[in-house]
Inverse folding.
């Protein structure tokens, strides 16, 4: 009887420990939103991306985020501090820098002992301008999130991609089939049927 109880307690303890370990190692997220942008206005179009953290980010004190961009495709117009930092009610230090023409660095710090913020929320709003057509990516190079005790979060980071005036993919003629000859008299009617195009644009 005591052996059964001991085995049961051992199993329960093991399960409990596994749950605790799983919860403590869950990665927090810092990311650009939206993750995909479709721009139909062509060169010169401006669009906004928000740098956000998810609801698993708790007691955030400081962050830093590096994203690689292609200056031949996109230019940075402005970068503004997001409302999540100001929601702390404390003084904040916020900065953004272009590093070597191809890297954007954004960072923030909440000043004051015992003051922090928790997600979800917007850390920064970035306005970009398209300078060429085609596809390009904003790829995360490095990032750090630290909590109120200056402990580094286990975190994941995500960038974004954008399409500037990218046309729909090709579509084919269904009827008449390839190589078929249509003959008729003046005034006769016939139908041409195409399949649907697969557009990269929503809707």
């Amino acid at each position: 009887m005591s052996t059964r109880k001991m085995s049961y307690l051992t199993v329960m303890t093991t399960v409990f420990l596994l749950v605790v370990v799983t919860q403590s190692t869950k990665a927090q997220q810092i990311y650009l939103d939206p993750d995909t942008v479709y721009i139909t206005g062509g060169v010169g179009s401006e669009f906004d991306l928000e740098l956000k953290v998810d609801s698993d980010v708790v007691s955030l004190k400081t962050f830093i985020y590096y994203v690689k961009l292609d200056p031949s495709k996109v230019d940075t117009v402005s970068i503004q501090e997001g409302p999540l930092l100001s929601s702390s009610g404390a003084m904040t230090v916020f900065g953004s820098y272009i590093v070597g023409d191809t890297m954007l660095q954004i960072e923030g710090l909440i000043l004051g002992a015992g003051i922090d913020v928790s997600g979800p929320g917007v850390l920064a709003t970035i306005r970009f301008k398209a300078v060429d057509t085609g596809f390009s990516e904003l790829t995360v190079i490095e990032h750090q999130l630290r909590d109120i005790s200056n402990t580094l979060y286990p975190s994941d980071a995500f960038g974004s991609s954008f399409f500037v005036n990218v046309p729909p993919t090709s579509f084919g003629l269904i009827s008449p089939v390839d190589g078929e000859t249509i003959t008729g008299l003046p005034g006769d009617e016939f139908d041409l049927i195409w399949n649907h195009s697969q557009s990269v644009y929503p809707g």
